[in-house]
UniProtKB/TrEMBL annotation:
Residues 119-133 have a biased composition (Basic and acidic residues). The gene is HS3ST3B1. It comes from Ictalurus punctatus. The lineage of its organism: Eukaryota, Metazoa, Chordata, Craniata, Vertebrata. This is Sulfotransferase. 3'-phosphoadenylyl sulfate binds at K162, G163, G164, T165, R166, R243, S251, K368, G369, R370, T371, H372. One of its GO terms (cellular component) is Golgi membrane.
């Protein structure tokens, strides 16, 4: 016992002791641990800049520093309806589009048989379920594994609901330099708090030179969307498929009717007061079609040259022509031409001779191109009269007459 104590206190004896070895090991581990901690802080510091501000997403990057100087503040839209109403939307449809708008909220078996025309669905991939943030899957901001890299979209189809947005995206993805998220991400209207890394993770992988795209038609009428997209990238290209607002409203109503057959008639929803003919602009089916008002919101952030308006009508009558314009706008080689389309008599719409990644002809599903209910012509005329001044304003703003009047 005495001997061992003596050994322990002798410096040379100590150097050879297991205690000393353990101390040395502990020291090395401490240094390593501090190093790892230091590196992590360095990496993590880059994450907030890639993610949206979760506290006040609508303010992210816009109210301070350079952001506040660069970003113009949104102006209020001048009175645009007969009543001054229109700020709040009586949203029978919940402004949802027909596509699988939020696959994350549906179990996969519910999607089966539905028109789950998403890339991931067709390929049997997993578009649903709780998405893990790439930060937690160890990726931080790098996503380059396998073939390509997940990137934030450089171009977004922001609207309009029932305009023909699915047709445009399906046609565009035939282009070898376009890759698109299948389902509607709804990031800039519903899931903004999830952050940009979450959004990026929804995107397909792209190779250098390929364009990443998505479509969510409700962005066009979401007040915060322009500022949020601007804060992601001020060079984002925006595409809006517009359609005669009267037909669009009826199409919107038809969609709701197909899901809830017990809703009141179009006429009774459209009028605030049937006798005076006052139109209820708080009904989302009506409000979405006041394009000039929504566009004004986008123009507070993006110049007109960064927004392309696609005619929903021409997308049906001359898909190759419209696709030519879109390819030019996106800086793509004109690869999609009239050779890619045929008119399907049964469907009554143009279809693809070969869908992307397939050798088979492809038409859009049965929720696209529904038969609309008959609406009293006098009611339709009243709606036409209502939209006319807004259409004129829209033609003036875009420098293009869409021929709806
Ligand atoms: N090629 C082709 N095939 C089928 N349908 C076509 C096509 N091109 C445009 N359309 C029109 O697209 C309308 C649906 O628009 P969206 O895809 O934007 O709807 S949604 O907002 O995503 O629900 C849909 O509206 P409805 O006819 O009222 O159903 C179609 O008229």
């Amino acid at each position: 016992m005495e001997y061992s104590l003596l050994r322990a206190h002798h410096p040379y004896a100590l150097s050879a002791s297991p205690v000393r070895r353990k101390l040395a090991l502990f020291g090395i581990m401490l240094v390593l641990w501090l190093y790892v901690l230091y590196s992590c802080v360095g990496s993590c510091a880059t994450v907030p800049s890639l993610r949206a501000d979760r506290r006040r997403p609508e303010d992210a990057g816009l109210r301070s520093g350079i952001g506040s100087r660069l970003v113009p503040q949104a102006r209020a839209w001048e009175d645009y309806d007969q009543t001054g109403v229109g700020v709040f939307s009586r949203d029978l449809n919940n402004v949802k589009s027909d596509d699988v708008t939020d696959v994350r909220t549906f179990p996969r078996n519910v999607l089966k048989g539905n028109e789950a025309e998403t890339e991931t669905e067709r390929r049997g991939g997993d578009a649903g379920g709780e998405r893990r943030s790439p930060v937690h899957s160890g990726g931080l901001s790098t996503f380059s594994n396998g073939s390509g890299t997940k990137r934030l979209p450089q171009a977004i189809i922001v609207g309009v609901k029932k305009g023909g947005t699915r047709a445009l995206l399906e046609f565009l993805r035939v282009h070898p330099d376009v890759r698109a998220a299948g389902a509607e991400p709804h990031f800039f209207d519903r899931f903004y708090d999830n952050g940009l890394e979450w959004y990026r993770d929804l995107m397909p992988k792209t190779l250098d030179g390929q364009i990443t795209m998505e479509k969510t038609p409700s962005y066009f009428v979401t007040r915060e969307a322009p500022a949020r997209i601007y804060s992601m990238s001020r060079s984002t290209k925006l595409i809006v498929v517009v359609r005669d607002p009267v037909t669009r409203a009826i199409s919107d109503y038809t969609q709701t009717l197909s899901k809830r057959p017990d809703i009141p008639s179009f006429e009774s929803l459209m009028f605030k007061n049937r006798t005076t003919g006052l139109i209820d602009t708080s009904w989302s089916a009506i409000q979405i079609g006041i394009y000039a008002k929504h566009l004004d919101n986008w123009l507070q952030f993006f110049p007109m040259r960064q927004i392309l308006f696609v005619s929903g009508e021409r997308l049906i009558s001359d898909p190759a022509g419209e696709l030519g314009r879109v390819q030019d706008f996106l800086g793509l080689k004109r690869i999609i031409t009239d050779k890619h389309f045929y008119f399907n008599q049964t469907k009554g719409f143009p279809c693809l001779k070969k869908a992307e990644g397939s050798s088979k002809p492809h038409c859009l599903g049965k929720t696209k191109g529904r038969t609309h209910p008959n609406i009293n012509p006098a009611v339709v005329q009243r709606l036409r009269d209502f939209y006319r001044p807004f259409n004129m304003k829209f033609y003036q703003m875009t420098g293009h007459n869409f021929g709806w009047d």
